[in-house]
Amino acid sequence: MIEPTKADFKFIKFKIPSFSFKESKKEQVDLKLLFNPSGVFIPSEKKFILNLSFEGIENDDIKSNMIINVEGLAEFEFANEITIDEIPSFFYSNSIAITFPYLRAFISTLSLQSNTGVIMLGLMNFTNMGEVLKKNTIIK
């Protein structure tokens, strides 16, 4: 057996500051799922704020046919003061993967409560999104 190395960061909280939802006119909808991760690193507070924007668009690629749009914010805290260059590369993809179940639960609950048919998001591989998040991170 092997003991995993403990991460030097922890998940603090998640919230949804804004969202919109529109029922499709179609009986059966295939959604194109789009994510836009960005981040704000605050070294003086040892914090990282992940903004995970999500859009579900009917597969005809017209923005006016957006079914759901959600902005999720997740706050992470590092154990020690670090610079942006010292943030481990795995943090970027892992922070998205940690946040995704909260976003997925919100979307399925919202669509269930609206009685329009549940939007279920499946498992996803966020490995490639880690690089996008890294590029879209600013220092505050």
Query: What is the share of helical residues?
Result: 10-25%
Mind telling me which CATH architecture this is? Roll
How many whole angstroms does the radius of gyration measure? Answer: 17 Å
Number of strands: 5
Largest sheet data: 5 strands, mixed
Oligomer: single chain
Question: Mind telling me the CATH superfamily name?
Answer: SecB-like
Q: Can you give a write-up of this model?
A:
This protein has about 140 residues and is an alpha+beta fold. Helix content is about 25%, strand content about 40%. The chain has two helices and five strands. The chain has helices at about 90-115, 125-135; strands spanning about 10-20, 30-40, 45-60, 65-80, 135-140. A five-stranded mixed sheet has the order 1-4-3-2-5. α1 packs across α2. The termini are far apart. The mean pLDDT is about 90.
Condensed summary:
This protein has a single domain, classed as SecB-like (Bacterial Protein-export protein SecB), CATH 3.10.420.10.
